[in-house]
Write a structure and sequence with these properties.
- The protein has helices at residues 10-13, 22-36, 52-59, 63-71, 88-114, and strands at residues 49-50, 78-80, 83-87.
- It is mainly α.
- The chain has two domains: 1-46, no CATH class; 49-114, Multidrug-efflux Transporter Regulator, Chain: A, Domain 2, CATH 1.10.1660.
- The chain has a three-stranded antiparallel beta sheet with strand order 1-3-2.
- Helix 3 packs across helix 4 (63-71).
C-alpha cells in the first residue's frame, strides 16, 4: 500500500500573504481527499540539518575549523544525542557570509578584469 505524502518546503510557507495562499489550499485539498478515503492525516515537521563534516565540505573548511566554530558559538547547532547537527538555515547563513568574504577579497581583481583599459 502506498501512503500519500505532501511536502511543503519552508520557503513556500514563510512570508506568504494573509488569507489562504496556494500552499494552504493545497494542504486543505490533501486533507479533504484523505478524509474522503477514510485515511488519517499525520502532520509533522522535520528540520533539515547537516553534519559538521558536510558543513566543512560545503564551505571548503577543515572539520577542525567547523568544530572550533561550533565550540565558540559562531556556528549554531542542534544536539542530536551527543552529536552536533547544523540546521540548514544556519548553513545557508554561513555560506552567504563565506561568499561575501570571497567577493570582498577579490573585488579589485574582478574590477581590473572588467574595467581594464581597452
Amino acid at each position: 500500500m502506498v501512503t500519500p505524502v505532501m511536502t511543503l518546503a519552508p520557503e513556500a510557507v514563510q512570508g506568504s500573504p494573509a488569507g489562504q495562499s496556494v500552499w494552504e489550499m493545497a494542504l486543505i485539498a490533501f486533507i479533504r481527499d484523505a478524509a474522503a478515503q477514510g485515511r488519517t492525516v499525520l502532520v509533522s515537521t522535520e528540520v533539515k540539518t547537516l553534519t559538521p563534516e558536510q558543513v566543512a565540505r560545503g564551505l571548503n573548511l577543515s572539520r577542525s575549523t567547523v568544530s572550533r566554530r561550533i565550540a565558540d558559538g559562531t556556528i549554531s547547532t542542534i544536539r542530536v544525542g551527543n552529536r552536533h547537527h547544523v540546521p540548514y538555515p544556519e548553513y545557508h547563513r554561513l555560506w552567504e557570509e563565506t561568499m561575501a568574504k570571497v567577493v570582498d577579497a577579490s573585488i579589485n581583481d574582478i574590477e581590473a578584469e572588467l574595467f581594464a583599459d581597452e
